[in-house]
Amino acid sequence: MNQAVEPSTLNPLLNQTFSQRHRRPLLISVSLAALLGLGVFAGYWWNLGRFLEETDDAYVRADWVAISPRIAGYVAQVLVEDNQPVKAGDVLVRIEERDFTERLNSAQAQLQQVQAAANAQQATLQTLDARMSEQQQRIAQVQAALRSAEAEARRAQLDYARYRELVAQHVATAQRLETVSASQAQAQAAVAVARAQVARQQARLQVLQASRQQAQAQIIEHQARVGEAQANLALARNALSDTEIRAPFDGVVGQRKVRRQQYVMPGLPLLAVVPVEQAYVIANYKETQLQRMLPGQSVEIEVDSFSGQHWHGQVESIAPGSGAVFALLPPDNATGNFTKVVQRFPVKIRLVPEGDETSRILPGMSVIATVDTRPGVRQEHVHGG
Question: Which domains does the chain have, with CATH numbers?
Answer without folding.
Answer: 66-94+245-269 (2.40.50.100), 98-241 (1.10.287.620)
